[in-house]
């Protein structure tokens, strides 16, 4: 019921508004038909008149636009024509700048004409051609003038830039305008300004700049003997060269700057002191001179050449000369100032001056580079040129400043010598003179020089600025790192093949290690203050060098041992020596081993320190004896004749073995070492006992054993002795009794 009521209510409200809407519609219909009548009237009469008026107006407007365009085009054509006429007049009068400006006017008129869309005149193409022809004509005239103003007389030679060809190069600059041109102002100015107006100046100056660099400026830097000289005639100025004997390989920067400045002054006076007057409209840009343009083009190349071929060579190589370098910096400043005054250079400091002022860093870099190059050359030179060093050998050195040297640059030049004798340690306890001393031996002379280089560089470091000192200290450490990396690789084959070189290399490493122990110490006062962690030391490198020397020598020892065993392997196991052929083979093997040892004894003589020599030779002789003992002890049957022959072979070894010990060149001094052979050859007594067994009867063997307390028992085990008895004696009751006593 509720819903019905609501609907009725809404319906009753709706009815009246519906009624009023219908009334409104009928009114609108009436109005609409009125409008239609009116519209028909307008279309038939008024519109017709209006259309006629608008059409007439549009036509007039278009007519006006066409006339204006034609007028402006005619005006531009006339401007173009006038410009070309004026250009021709000016050109005839050699008023080059005016002529060039007229050409530019013609060009801008033509540009305007070409920009008019929808109006392509056939004539424009012809005008364009005319303008191009006239421009080329003008450039040709200017080119001719320019060639008369600056004349290069160059030799036809192919190797341009060589001293020979430079000697015949000349530059002629015309100084006087001929009479009829005086009106046009200085010809140089008008020719160059005209080029500028036509936008061709850059190209012309670029070529000129390149010739200037190639034939005048660079040769003056590269050839110290060249002197520029000038000659002035009535209407021409000539710049040419003469050659004088140079005093040094490199000219000083002062001389070079002087010569180059002279060239620039000439150019400035006769050619380039010309403002490039831009056409009057944009006055803003005048004031650029030719000198500036040329300077922009060539300065970078010129200053590079000056740095690389002049300043680099002038960097001093030792710190005492650094103070005099102030002169070079001054003259570099003056040189730049002169060029700025002539406007070749703009305001700021250039690379050239930066380089000169940075001398300390260059000095350090150059010094470090020289040191490393020198070191590398030493490392790659022959190892076998040797010098003898003894416990009191010294490294000669310039005197070092003391701990409180007031001015550490004033170093006394007397030479203080660093000996191996005596080293004062921090707490000033004196050590025995041999604590740090090296045994007498031979080292490569290149390594001795390397050590001197290290000491000298450190001495130099202590006298340098802090930055330089640090760089030099590290370059000395680099020398040793480099040695460690370069030498074993570079000389690898020889170190493997040649036992003498392996021995020298071993000594070299020990010598370096020895000096590294104390190297930082002598310079500690100066170095520890600067190196932040106080690490002015080389001690950390010592173990590496000792290892390097040992490894190389031990590798060589392994090679030699291998050869000994290889030779003994051809001795047919020392069995059946009663067979002539077997005996010969064994005898030959023993002879070869002795020969090998003798040869080694000779090549290591006077090279290795005596104690190392004796250990090495002892070890190798021991290898041979030990191998022979093992082979003989393993035999199952030894006849009486076998035993005699084996004894003879062993006797050869015992008699001749010690003679391979010749550590010193003086024979009488070697006796001592030959008598001490049992000390160096571990199996010597074993070998002697074996010889006794080969000659003894059963009772003598039992006596030598002496219940396991005799000399035989010290060298052989019971099992080995029993085995030898079984091989040597036939199976009898006496043998059984003897065997029973060996236990």
Please give a structural write-up.
With 743 residues, the chain is mainly α. Among the domains are: 7-148, no CATH class; 154-278 and 287-343. It has 28 helices and 8 strands. It has a 4-stranded antiparallel sheet with strand order 1-2-4-3. Strands 5-8 form a two-stranded antiparallel sheet. The protein has a two-stranded antiparallel sheet with strand order 6-7. A hairpin with a 3-residue loop joins strand 3 (226-232) and strand 4. Helix 2 (46-92) packs antiparallel against helix 3 (96-115) and helix 8 (253-272) runs parallel beside helix 10. The protein is elongated and about 170 Å long. Mean pLDDT is 81; it is low at 180-184, 278-286 and 398-435. Keywords: Acetylation, Cell cycle, Cell division, Centromere, Chromosome, Coiled coil, Cytoplasm, Cytoskeleton, Endoplasmic reticulum, ER-Golgi transport, Kinetochore, Membrane, Mitosis, Phosphoprotein, Protein transport, Transport. It is found in: Chromosome, Centromere, Kinetochore; Cytoplasm, Cytoskeleton, Spindle; Endoplasmic reticulum membrane.
The class by helix and strand makeup works out as mainly alpha
Number of strands: 8
What distance lies between the first and last C-alpha atoms, to the nearest angstrom? Answer: 139 Å
Q: Which value, in Å, is the CA radius of gyration?
A: 53 Å
Mean pLDDT: 81
Spans with pLDDT under 50 lasting ≥5 residues?
Answer: 180-184, 278-286, 398-435
Strand order of the largest sheet: 1-2-4-3
Q: Level of helix content? A: 55-70%
Silhouette: elongated
Strand content: 5-15%
> How many alpha or pi helices?
28
Q: What would you call the quaternary organization? A: single chain
Largest sheet: 4 strands, antiparallel
């Amino acid at each position: 019921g509720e819903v019905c009521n609501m609907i009725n209510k809404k319906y009753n409200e709706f009815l009246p508004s519906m009624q009023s809407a219908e009334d409104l519609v009928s009114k609108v219909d009436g109005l609409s038909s009125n409008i239609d009548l009116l519209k028909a009237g307008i279309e038939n009469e008024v519109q017709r008149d209006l259309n006629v008026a608008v059409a007439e107006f549009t036509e007039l407007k278009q007519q006006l636009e066409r006339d204006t365009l034609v007028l402006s085009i005619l005006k531009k054509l006339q401007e173009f024509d006038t410009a070309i006429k004026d250009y021709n007049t000016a050109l005839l009068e050699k008023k080059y700048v005016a002529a060039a400006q007229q050409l530019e006017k013609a060009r801008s008129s033509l540009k305007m004409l070409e920009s008019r869309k929808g109006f392509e005149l056939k004539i424009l193409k012809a005008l364009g051609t005319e303008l191009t022809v006239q421009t080329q004509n003008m450039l040709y005239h200017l080119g001719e003038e320019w060639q008369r103003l600056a004349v290069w007389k160059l030799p036809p030679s192919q190797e341009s830039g060589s001293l020979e060809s430079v000697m015949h190069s000349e530059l002629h600059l015309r100084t006087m305008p001929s009479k009829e041109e005086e009106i046009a102002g200085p010809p140089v100015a008008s020719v160059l300004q005209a080029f500028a107006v036509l936008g061709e100046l850059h190209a012309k100056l670029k070529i000129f700049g390149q010739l200037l660099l190639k034939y005048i400026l660079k040769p003056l830097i590269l050839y110290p003997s060249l002197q520029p000289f000038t000659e002035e005639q009535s209407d021409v100025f000539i710049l040419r060269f003469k050659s004088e004997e140079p005093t040094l390989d490199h000219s000083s920067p002062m001389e070079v700057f002087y010569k180059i400045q002279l060239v620039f002054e000439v150019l400035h006076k006769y050619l380039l002191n010309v403002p490039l007057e831009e056409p009057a409209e944009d006055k803003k840009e005048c004031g650029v001179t030719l000198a500036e343009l040329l300077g922009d083009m060539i300065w970078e190349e010129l200053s590079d050449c000056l740095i690389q071929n002049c300043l680099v060579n002038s960097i001093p190589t030792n710190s005492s000369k650094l103070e005099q370098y102030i002169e070079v910096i001054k003259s570099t400043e003056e040189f730049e100032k002169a060029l700025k005054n002539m406007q070749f250079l703009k305001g700021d400091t250039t690379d050239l001056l930066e380089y000169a002022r940075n001398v300390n860093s260059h000095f350090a870099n150059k010094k470090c580079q020289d040191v490393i190059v020198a070191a590398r050359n030493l490392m790659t030179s022959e190892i076998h040129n040797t010098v003898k060093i003894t416990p009191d050998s010294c490294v000669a050195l310039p005197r070092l400043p003391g701990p409180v040297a007031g001015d550490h640059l004033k170093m006394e030049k007397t030479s203080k010598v660093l000996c191996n004798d005596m080293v004062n340690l921090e707490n000033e306890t004196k050590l025995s003179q041999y604590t740090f001393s090296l045994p007498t031996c031979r080292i490569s002379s290149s390594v001795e020089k390397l050590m001197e280089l290290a000491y000298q560089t450190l001495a130099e470091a202590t006298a340098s600025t802090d930055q330089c000192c640090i760089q030099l200290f590290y370059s000395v450490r680099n020398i040793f790192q480099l040695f460690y990396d370069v030498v074993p690789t570079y000389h690898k084959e020889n170190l493997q093949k040649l036992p003498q070189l392996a021995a020298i290399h071993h000594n070299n490493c020990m010598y370096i290690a020895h000096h590294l122990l104390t190297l930082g110490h002598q310079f500690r006062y100066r170095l520890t203050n600067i190196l932040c962690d106080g690490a002015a030391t080389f001690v950390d490198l010592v173990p590496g060098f000792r290892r390097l020397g040992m490894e190389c020598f031990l590798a060589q020892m392994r090679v030699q041992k291998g050869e000994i065993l290889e030779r003994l392997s051809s001795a047919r196991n020392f069995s059946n020596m009663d067979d002539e052929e077997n005996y010969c083979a064994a005898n030959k093997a023993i002879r070869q081993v002795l020969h090998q040892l003798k040869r080694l004894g000779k090549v290591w003589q006077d090279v290795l320190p005596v104690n190392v020599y004796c250990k090495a030779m002892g070890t190798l002789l021991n290898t041979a004896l030990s191998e022979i003992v093992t082979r003989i002890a393993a035999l199952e049957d030894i006849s009486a004749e076998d035993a005699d022959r084996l004894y003879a072979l062993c006797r050869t070894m015992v008699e001749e073995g010690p003679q391979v010990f010749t550590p010193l060149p003086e024979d009488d001094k070697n006796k001592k070492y030959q008598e001490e052979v049992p000390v160096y050859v571990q199996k010597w007594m074993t070998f002697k006992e074996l010889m006794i067994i080969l000659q003894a009867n059963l009772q003598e063997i039992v006596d030598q054993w002496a219940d396991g307390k005799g000399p035989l028992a010290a060298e052989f085990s019971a099992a080995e002795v029993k085995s030898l008895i079984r091989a040597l004696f036939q199976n009898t009751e006496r043998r059984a009794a003897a065997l029973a006593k060996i236990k």
